[in-house]
Amino acid sequence: MENSHAGLHGPLVVIGGSAGSVEVMSEVLSGFEEGFRGTVCLVFHMSPARDFSALDQTLQRRSRLPVAFARDAMLYEPGHVYIAPSDRHLLIEADRLVVCKGPLENRMRPAIDPLFRSAAISHAERVAGVILSGSLDDGASGLAAVDRCGGLTIVQDPVEASFPEMPQHALAAVVKADHCVPARAIAPILNAIELAGDPEPFIPPHDLVEEVEIAKCVKSRSEMEDEMGKQVPLTCSDCGGPLWERKDPALARFRCHIGHATGLATLAMTQRAELDRALSICIRTLEERKKILESLRKTAASAHQALTVSSYDRKLTEVEDNLESLRAIYRAPEII
């Protein structure tokens, strides 16, 4: 599969952000010069439970370029900004946008990694990838893909970011980011990009092509278990299935046979939430058992059954000891 530059009159700019990044996205868009010939695609982590239907209007207030939500199979145009819609991944395929309900990545849909990978394999050195403020590690693998394919890598300075974790993971995933700068400096860098006329032919890495096919639901993870990695004793936080460790040169990542993908930071966060829930259930169940045993002891005491009362006393002591231990674990900051 060779890359295609059809539809591009300037750079293909892909931007990803999460918590604390809407204002930053607005600042970046406000800095694009009128007549900017590149195409801009944005992924902002949207919860399906929240209404982000006015995000295009919010960003349009400060943008000289037209801003709209992406639609599947639409031809993208130079000097336009396209936003991934809620609960859909946004991908690039030659001169068209792909909007699809592929597997969750890092517990998100839309996710940043699928957009960046698809842009990288389609347009190689004509891509500029930008990572903004956010939590956890979505975007790190995608920016590494842009780097592998010869594109430009830009990361918002973590010192400035409201949520520095995503920029920090992105910086760790690439050999060296081309630019790590404050938000106000990002648009001037993109405005100054000058592209050569005809790029060299480029054959994208096979593993990135397959990752994009998973995101588009063209190929399932079960078809690639042997070639994509080894099974590990971990379970997917999205479906509960087994995980395979991904052979990613940039960072440790995992996929299940459904296609759900996660980085280590996201996996640690979800395991923390699962542990919190499991401990809560254990504590609640023991509290209920304590109530039941107290009722049974009271009944036995009323019937003057001394041996039975003594047995319930021992059980109640065991329950109290277990509750004390579980509460101590639950309160420990290094565990939860």
Please provide a written account of the structure:
By secondary structure, the chain is α/β, with parallel strands linked by helices. The protein has three domains: 12-191, Rossmann fold (3-Layer(aba) Sandwich); 220-259, no CATH class; 272-331. It has ten helices and 13 strands. It has helices at residues 22-30, 55-60, 112-123, 140-148, 165-173, 186-191, 206-215, 225-228, 264-302, 306-331; strands at 12-17, 39-44, 67-69, 81-83, 89-93, 96-100, 127-131, 152-156, 179-181, 229-235, 242-246, 253-256, 261-263. A seven-stranded parallel β-sheet has the order 3-4-2-1-7-8-9. A four-stranded antiparallel β-sheet has the order 10-11-12-13. α1 (22-30) links the parallel β1 (12-17) and β2. α3 crosses α7, α4 (140-148) packs parallel to α5 (165-173) and α9 (264-302) runs antiparallel to α10 (306-331).
Please give a handful of descriptors for the protein shown.
single chain, 336 residues, alpha/beta, Rossmann fold, 3 domains, seven-stranded parallel beta sheet, 10 helices, 39% helix, elongated
How are the strands of the largest sheet arranged?
A: 3-4-2-1-7-8-9
Low-pLDDT stretches:
none
User: What is the helix fraction of residues, given as a range?
Assistant: 25-40%
Helix and strand element order: EHEHEEEEHEHEHEHHHEEEEHH
Rg estimate, integer Å: 25 Å
Q: How many distinct beta strands?
A: 13
* Overall pLDDT metric: 90
Question: In percent terms, what proportion of residues is strand?
Answer: 15-25%
Q: Find the CATH superfamily of the largest domain.
A: Methylesterase CheB, C-terminal domain
How far apart, in Å, are the first and last alpha carbons? 46 Å
Q: Please, how many domains?
A: 3
SSE class: alpha/beta
CATH level 1 class label of the largest domain: Alpha Beta
CATH topology of the largest domain: Rossmann fold
Shape: elongated
Count of runs of 4 or more consecutive helical residues: 10
Q: Which CATH-level-2 architecture of the largest domain?
A: 3-Layer(aba) Sandwich
